[in-house]
Write a structure and sequence with these properties.
It is a single chain. This protein is α+β, with helices and mostly antiparallel strands. It folds into 3 domains: 14-230 and 375-402, Hypothetical protein af1432, CATH 1.10.3210; 233-319, Growth Hormone, Chain: A (Up-down Bundle), CATH 1.20.1250; 323-367 and 403-424, Growth Hormone, Chain: A (Up-down Bundle). The protein is 50% helix and 10% strand. The protein is built from 21 helices and 9 strands. The strands form 3 sheets. Strands 3-4-7-8 form a 4-stranded mixed beta sheet. Strand 3 (197-200) and strand 4 (203-207) form a beta hairpin.
Amino acid sequence: MGRDDHAGLNKLKIFNDPVYGFINVLYPSVFDILEHPYFQRLRRIKQLGLTHLVYPGALHTRFQHAMGAMYLMGQAIDTLRTKGHDITEDEAQGVTMAVLLHDIGHGPFSHALENNLVDELDHEQLSLLFMKRLQKIQPDIIGQAIDIFLNKHPKKFLHQLVSGQLDMDRLDYLNRDSFFTGVSEGVVSHDRIIKTLNIAREKLVTDEKGIYSLEKFIIARRLMYWQVYLHKTVISAEQMLSTILKRAKEIAINGQELFATPPLKRFLTNHIKADDFLNEPDLLDDFALLDDFDVFTSIKTWTNHSDTVLSTLCKKMVSRQLFKIELQKEKFESEYVDKIHEITGKIYKLSFGESKYFVLTGHTENNAYDPGVGNIWILQKNGNVSDMAEISDQLNIRVLSHPVKKYYICYPKEVWEFLMRKDG
């Protein structure tokens, strides 16, 4: 994207996207936000965290995803207008801006480090902080985008297009993540789904003829979660990354010497909470300087740190010596977890307090159709509007709406090899 004519009239640029082909920037106001350093930072944040350690092609960024969601939003607006629904130019710009900025609050490695650098503040809340800051540049348009983002706009379907069970965010990330990972199960008919979008009873619906594409969409989402987003090796890698940051923060807060880039050091040496962003205006600017490079540069340096726990974990991460992971439907017995702690402590000469950084437990969930986020409404030929779960004859959507929970335990492969030798 050229900068030579930034001050001129040619702000309606064209991007060549590998998923959709050519993407147009429809509004000069959008171009001005694309050029802002806050948004350009998304080029340096991977969409799928550490998933590239399993699927080497998964190196795409939050910037690409935001552009894709913006493109799909343009397609959706065109479809709804064609069907006679009134969407003003201001509303079109507002909803386009809302979907463009919906992920701007993501920190390094996206979801992998959620709540690690900032306590009790998720990426959506941070996105809102960025929007409010950017509102100074585009007061009216981003003001409307904020209303849509918070579901305060009177036309509720605009919010559903940005954040709902069938929004442009999900449609893009399924296709994009499928493309870059090579997992074909995630491919969905985004164009077919968008062409069947409609509005009835003041909410976003889909024409009945699109139901089969929606069934495929839900199944694709379920498969992508288990094959990509919650792949067991990805869980292991991201839990290790999270643990490294926790150990580094503990060391930094205790006053020990720890290399870090200046913005990262601020977040490692303090327990940053939501109120701090209100009381310290420059804090958001420091967060806006953080990206994947800050974290991984620090991790490479920490491989030589005097703290054995930190250096060992970092060496394993840099060389991709990921923890062994076990998954099951029930919680692991405390006796088994204690046994893993004991063996880990002996192998690495660690105290029980230190072994907690090498034995990681928790759970994960997959919810293909989450009624809590909102329903997928079908406009039937007789004019009735029904939940997809009630009229789908191919899938038991009600079963898919129940979350599938799996428990995990991660620990070094040397411990697993010790257990195999002992059992053998």
